[in-house]
Please model this.
Amino acid sequence: MGLNVPEYPGPGRKRAFLLLTAVAAAVIGILVFGTARDYVQGGGYVPDEAKCLVCHSNPDLAKNTPQGKISLYVNEVVASTSAHRFIDCTTCHTTKPHEVATPLTKLSLAQKCGSCHQYQYKLHLESIHGQQLAQGNPDVATCVDCHSRKGDSHGVIRVLEHDAPTYKKNIAETCARCHDNDELMKDYGIVEKVYESYMRSFHGKALQLSGYELGSLNKATCTNCHGVHDIKSAGDPQAPVAGADNLVKTCEQCHPGAGVEFAKGFLGHREASRDNVPQAHYTEIIFRTLMISVVAFGIFLMLIAIVRFSINRWRE
Ligand code: HEC
Ligand code: HEC
Ligand code: HEC
Ligand code: HEC
Ligand code: HEC
Ligand code: HEC
Ligand code: HEC
Model:
């Protein structure tokens, strides 16, 4: 009774191995050279099954619309580093993009983003920015004003990348693109220098000095007080910054048990004045008067000393 050991298939195996190696080499070769070729051609790589970039990688491609000339150029290098770099053109644009006439406005853009990001879109529509967008105001923020470097639909950067406009350290600068633009803001009665006053505040200075680790970025930036996709007008009673009660809750997210007095002492973006937080205004005046008195007294003492010294020298 013996085991039925099959004969060792020497030469057959060897041939299979050689064949496999050849196939693997060919696949790797195609992959390497194929990708390299795409890089050389476009300077980047984005999925483009329908070869849209044959035309749309041309920087001069544009279209005339009632709002003026709109560029139809898609920058492949920018697109290849975006959050959507693995999504094919036709996933967002259908296979027949030229059959759908889009107005290519800030609102139609938000609608397209919103077809996938429904939650953020819904909040955004109810925000002060989104409401104005729906009324055709082109000054307010649409998705890509906050999510890409140059307002480019194809350049959305993931939130947690250090150079993302939405990374906590950069948010104030992102809002400042518009809110520190006097020309843009003068039409809206927004008189406060919101960016400047924020950067003067403890929170602003501390965030500016901190590094990029999330742990050190625990101070408040614009969105911690105003919200992100649901930003409301400061005059809206539902805004997280409207009225002492809402404001306290906003501070208490990070200052547990802060209480009304803590929030009341907060100047918002305004300078302290007789009408706005008078305590702080008068404290400031008292401190300034005290400072001046102390310095003046010091100078007075010094003068006396000098006079005294001179008189003594003269007498000797
Ligand atoms: C043969 C060149 C060519 C190819 C290929 C091409 N496009 Fe276009 N595309 C154009 C031109 C030209 C326009 C401007 C048409 C006009 O003036 O209305 C345009 C317009 C567009 C617009 C703006 C549509 C609008 O609402 O006016 C989008 C979006 C677009 N293309 C996406 C794509 C996508 C996605 C693909 C691949 C599936 C693609 N294109 C392939 C030439 C091309
Ligand atoms: C993640 C979704 C997404 C992908 C992927 C995408 N696009 Fe777009 N694209 C948009 C959005 C959003 C707009 C703005 C549409 C509007 O304003 O109505 C847009 C606009 C355009 C326009 C009009 C000009 C402009 O920049 O507003 C063209 C042309 C275009 N895309 C071509 C392409 C091509 C070519 C690709 C593939 C390389 C591509 N898109 C991939 C979302 C996408
Ligand atoms: C006023 C600026 C602003 C606008 C406008 C805006 N976003 Fe955002 N978005 C942000 C910030 C800031 C974050 C990071 C939130 C955080 O850190 O919690 C974010 C986060 C996100 C995220 C990541 C998931 C999440 O909710 O944190 C997605 C997805 C997103 N936004 C999509 C959109 C879309 C789609 C639109 C347009 C309909 C839009 N955003 C409009 C500022 C904005
Ligand atoms: C076809 C659906 C689709 C459309 C349209 C689309 N996105 Fe996305 N988006 C995605 C997917 C899927 C991811 C996740 C990619 C990943 O995790 O690698 C993503 C990721 C993101 C992120 C990064 C989230 C994070 O956690 O960092 C932001 C921000 C974002 N999208 C904003 C937008 C904006 C703004 C638009 C319009 C210009 C848009 N998206 C259009 C599908 C879409
Ligand atoms: C593309 C330009 C733009 C960007 C970017 C932008 N905003 Fe705005 N925002 C506006 C305009 C314009 C208004 C005025 C709308 C109005 O009052 O009708 C506005 C209104 C507001 C208001 C309401 C002001 C009031 O009337 O009380 C707040 C709060 C606000 N933005 C906060 C932010 C924050 C926080 C960011 C950054 C995360 C930001 N915005 C980014 C353009 C922008
Ligand atoms: C996102 C979190 C966050 C929010 C929201 C926030 N703060 Fe802060 N704040 C901090 C952190 C963190 C510090 C630094 C604490 C420390 O070093 O003791 C700080 C420091 C301060 C300081 C200076 C140092 C001190 O403890 O006296 C003041 C004043 C202050 N916050 C006021 C406010 C007010 C008023 C609000 C509400 C309108 C508010 N903060 C909302 C995170 C926040
Ligand atoms: C610690 C909380 C806090 C932070 C951080 C903060 N704000 Fe405010 N913001 C407020 C409060 C409270 C008000 C309402 C009272 C006021 O106008 O000072 C306000 C008002 C506003 C207004 C309306 C001003 C007007 O004239 O009607 C805008 C716009 C605004 N903030 C934008 C910003 C921007 C942009 C940033 C970041 C650069 C920012 N805020 C950071 C609390 C904050």
Q: What stands out?
A: Residues 46, 48, 52-53, 56, 72, 74, 79, 84, 87, 89, 91-93, 102, 104, 108-109, 112-113, 153-154 surround heme C (ligand 2) (CB under 6 Å). Confidence is low (pLDDT under 50) at residues 33-42. The two ends are 135 Å apart (CA to CA).
